[in-house]
Amino acid sequence: MWIHVVIFVMILCALTGWKKGWIPSYGIGGKDGIRLFAVVAIAGNLLGMILTLQNGGQVYPQGYRLEKEDTGSYEKEFMVSVDGEEPVSMYIQVPEKELEEQEEEPKQNKKLTRKEQAQKSIAEAVSRYNEQRSDPDYYYLPDKLNGKKVKWESPADTSGMLLTGLFLIAAMAILVMKGREEQVQLQKRYEELLMDYPGLIMKFTLLVQAGMTVRKAFQKISLDYGRKRKRNPRPAYEEIRIVCYEMESGVSESEAYRRFGERCGQAKYKTFATLLIQNLQKGSRQMADMLERESTEAWEERKRKARVLGEAAATKLLVPMIMMLIVVMAIVMIPAFMSFYGET
């Protein structure tokens, strides 16, 4: 029972650490992963605790008796403690074992361990006690042995602990799965930001060259993206929308551009944000030329990326193509061999 309490305390400590920020939630699925972990772990521990309480070790009262069955003898396991000593596990057979089966043991002259000696002493005491009572219907468990108090109880059922362990393993597996999903989503976002950059910088360059201010160019890009956002959401343009919302809510342009570069997290976007901040602070007559040069480099980078992705796709298609070739060869050659050997 105390193990379940310790598990509850550990789960609460972990949740508190995640909430306070002492334990990082990065790589385990964030809040969703932590929430699922808590639900599964706490539910499993509760079910295990209930099972442990229902099937815990039962202490038998003084003078407890076992009913003899007409179908034959049966065994029952007990944990026996003599005068408060460490409990010993032993099986009691009802009715007791035949003497012929026990006569072979002294012939072996085997040295018994302390535990085996205790089991033997208790078994002999139980046998003598029931011989004295000579009850044809019941088999009794003595409450004293050589003047010492004997405590009988059933062994504790470990199914509750097993259930709790399985749920904890499932909760840890959920954290791992959520962490992998998070990594996949971050990698996908990273690649989408790279693919969006050339088109974004080209649109921005065209708008600036047309005479728009940087702020107006951002608003124009955000407005155009908002019309088709539901059909094709893109992370770079979502960040543009956030920049516009921040500026409308009172955040300065330079601070909004700086946050834009940090949220995107890539060197290209940070360079772009730095260029915009410098234009606000110092002004730059060559900003349009610099943007055009950046746009050209971005498109060249995208072409190289597309070429690499195309080569990777061709490599992945190699195995299916070989399998199709084998199938085609089998379709052509098997009938030829069958007709050749059929004629001979």
Automatic annotation (TrEMBL):
It is a multi-pass membrane protein. The keyword Aminoacyl-tRNA synthetase does not apply. Pfam families: T2SSF. The keyword DNA-binding does not apply. Residues 204-335 form the Type II secretion system protein GspF domain. GO terms for cellular component: plasma membrane. The chain crosses the membrane at residues 35-53, 158-177, 317-341. It comes from the Bacteria. Residues 96-116 are annotated as: Disordered. It is found in: Cell membrane. Its main location: membrane. Keywords: Cell membrane, Membrane, Transmembrane, Transmembrane helix. This is Flp pilus assembly protein TadB.
